[in-house]
Amino acid sequence: MTDSRDSFAIRWTPPHGRAQKVVFEPRSAGGWDRITYEHRRGRWRITGEEIVADVGLEAAGSVTTGE
Length: 67
Prior knowledge:
It is a single chain. By secondary structure, the protein is mostly beta strands. Helices cover 0% and strands 58% of the residues. The chain is built from no helices and six strands. Strands 1-2-3-4 form a four-stranded antiparallel sheet, with no helix packed on it. A two-stranded antiparallel sheet has the order 5-6. Strand 5 and strand 6 form a beta hairpin. It is flat, with a radius of gyration of 14 Å. The two termini are 14 Å apart.
């Protein structure tokens, strides 16, 4: 079976702080890796990781799921 899911990221910069992002990457065994980053000294550095069962991305007027 071929995994047709794609990784995606959400980035933001708070008013007083470093740029942040969270990346969701599909796992071959099912589910997703959720990896959080902070931009420090010109590089993205991992600040946390966890496995999640399902992902849904909501936007104004629509919902996209990770299935």
